[in-house]
Amino acid sequence: MNIGRIFLGFAVIVGLAVAGAIVLFPQSRDFAVAPYFWVLIAFGLFELAVFARSGAAGPPISAQTRIVGFVIALALMIVLPVAAGMPLRIF
Asked: Which one-letter DSSP state was computed for residue 88?
């Protein structure tokens, strides 16, 4: 399986996890670190794990795949709480 597809699957999982945390704990929106930074931190940890596993010096994931994954995670992070009845609050 291609690392780009694994990353996109990981982006969906991270988006669902962050959205679930926002729905279950609404006060988490006001945490010191904003939820969209949670997504960036998770992506950074993924990159670190891929680098540690492969040892490759180059970027294993293309920039387009990173952007698409970030958009997917943010879309899930915004749409699912709104679908659960929470008011729209992006940042």
From this structure: P
